[in-house]
Amino acid sequence: MHTVLVNTSSNVFRLVVSTVITFFMTPVYLHALGQYDYGVWEIVWSLIGYLGLLDIGLRPTISRFIARVSPVTEGEHWRKVYSTSFFLMLGVGIVIGCVFLGWSVIAPDGLAEQPERAHRYALFLQLVALQVVIAFPNTGLESALEGGQRYVVKNNITLLHTIVSSVFLYHYIYRSVWDPLLLLCLVNIVAGLSKLVCFLWMLAPRGIGPKIPTPSHFDTGLAREMYGFGAKSFVQNTAGLIEQRGDVLIIGGFLGPALVVFYSIPQALLAQIRNLIWSLTHALMPMFSKMDSQGQHDRVKTYFFAGSRLMVGILTLFFIGAVTLGGPFISLWVGEKYISGNKIILYILSAYIYVGMMFPLGGRYMTAVGRHGALAKVGSIRALINLGISLALVQPLGPAGVALGSLLATLVIFPMEARAILGCLDMGLGSYLRSTLLPAVVPALAMSLLAVGGNVLGWTQNWLGFLLTGTIASLAFVLLYLVFGLRPEDRTRFIRLFGAA
After folding, report:
1. Minimal CB count within 10 Å: which of 9, 58, 198, 395?
2. CA neighbor of 345 nearest in space, from 299, 405, 291
3. Rounded to an integer, what distance in angstroms lies between the CA atom of residue 430 and that of residue 418?
4. What is the DSSP secondary structure assignment for residue 79, as one 8-state letter?
5. Sign of CA dihedral 114, 120, 121, 122
């Protein structure tokens, strides 16, 4: 349990630091690249996300296979898993890199706002191709470190490179002698190569063989086994990527790259809520799995509902904050023009995140008891509905129509998701919502009144007033939630859990 909590703490720390870096660097990128090139950047990386499905679930598979062998006691088998994983991910990177290389030769003008600048975008696509070839082996090595329970090492290396790259770009991306879009690619390539060296060094099995993966240790039979295992999570990954990446591609394809930013800015802000909940609940999945294997089903349910109350409380805090203070935050952060007239997108996406995360421990629990296949089916249905509605509404309603597609799809499948999760726990939806939502009503109302009051008084028109309003409103929520939300036995239970660890 101690290792799990340390790893999760490291993940949360990485998320916090990454969020701070994103806060400072997003306005820099947006103003340096301009609205059009920023949209191009978002579109290209969303497309890379889709093409990343070619790994057929290799990332979690690598973690699982690495975790099952010891580099010391099972040296030869460890080298096979290590080398096979590396070259499989390298192969995926090369395939996707060739796609972008071909695009740079055949049709670079498809990205160019002005045809005479097509050569610039051809060079951009070639640099992206090189970036991708480096990025996928890096991802595989990160998964290997996770499998060895070395999250702290992985996160520290990643954060160091992110900080150094961001500091460099902050000082040089505005200089006229540099092309901002191409400089961003070059810095990512250098950082990717440096991370690759660091990951390889940290993974080197001391005293049992080569310090780098070798083709001679690539095992075809093991590769087939890994792809067979990874295919089980392929459907779920596909559904998730359609939802997370598809919206940007639809907006860019139908409305042009310049309009992507009005969607991607609130989306990036709200994604931090999802990332925080995922990081906070990570430690509970192995705990659920261990309890379930020991036949402690009642104890699993107890922690599930106690944890759900806590997570829904945190989710509600950030949801109210996004709805009431998200607009002023974006205005101060990147400029009023990126939110003025587009607040409806922020509101719709906030509701989408809130409803979609209403079962924050559902995936953890279902995976722990081996019944996550039901969630994969539900996720696939949601992704298809989302895609269909977004395509139908993007032209008449613009980016807001795409956001509405995500929300409506989530509302449609919500009863199905509830049935899949709560059916395993022998609990009805009404009982669950009363247990998790009702405790947050009074704190949410108080926070809303204070935040709206700050807006009305004009406090949120500058950073000092915004921070003061946000702090007062959040403290009111937390204090009231401690009184009306968490039950005394919940507090005692969590204190014992973390104290024992």
Report:
1. 395
2. 405
3. 10
4. H
5. positive
Q: What share of the chain is helix, strand, coil (3-state, %, to 5)?
A: 85, 0, 15
Domain ranges in the chain are 2-232, 260-500
Q: d(Cα 263, Cα 346) in Å, to the nearest integer?
A: 8
Q: State residue 14's pLDDT score.
A: 81
Interatomic CA distance for residues 319 and 99, integer angstroms: 39
Q: How far is it, in rounded angstroms, from Cα 171 to Cα 244?
A: 31
Which positions of the chain have pLDDT values less than 70?
Answer: 1-8, 49-61, 63-65, 67-75, 148-149, 176, 205-211, 227-245, 282-287, 289-290, 293, 368, 370, 372-373, 487-501
Distance (Å, whole) CA 218 – CA 35: 45
- Which two structure tokens, joined as six digits, stand for 445? 């109302």
Which residues neighbour 25 within 8 Å (Cβ) at sequence distance 6 or greater? 166, 169, 170
From CA 366, how far away is CA 441, in angstroms rounded?
A: 28
Q: What angle do CA 362, 427, 444 make, to 5 degrees?
A: 65
At 421-431, the pLDDT tens digits run 998 888 888 98
Q: What would the DSSP string read from start to end of 115-141?
A: GGGHHHHHHHHHHHHHHHHHHHHHHHH
pLDDT tens-digit readout, 112-158: 878 778 888 899 999 999 998 998 888 878 877 777 667 788 888 98
Q: What is the 3-state secondary structure (H, E, C) of 265-327?
A: HHHHHHHHHHHHHHHHHCCHHHHHHHHHHCCCHHHHHHHHHHHHHHHHHHHHHHHHHHHHHHH
Output phi, psi for 267, to 5 deg: -65, -45
Structure tokens at 92: 């995926």
Contact predicate 403/348, CB 8 Å: yes
Q: How many CA atoms lie within 13 A of 270 on its CB side?
A: 28
Distance CA 439, CA 435 (A): 7
For 368, the 3-state DSSP assignment is: helix
| CA proximity to 182, closest of 171, 167, 169 | 169
Q: Residue 246 is which amino acid?
A: G
Q: How far apart are CA 29 and CA 21, in angstroms?
A: 12
- Cα separation, 198 vs 155, whole angstroms: 12
User: Considering the entire predicted model, what is its pTM?
Assistant: 0.76
CA distance 2 to 10: 12
Contact (Cβ atoms closer than 8 angstroms) between residue 97 and residue 130:
yes
For residue range 442-480, list pLDDT tens digits in order.
999 999 999 999 999 999 999 999 999 999 999 999 999
The count of other CB atoms within 10 Å of the CB of residue 176 is 6
3-state secondary structure of 388: helix
Quote the CA–CA distance of 333 and 315 in Å, as a whole number. 22
Tokens of 139: 């991802």
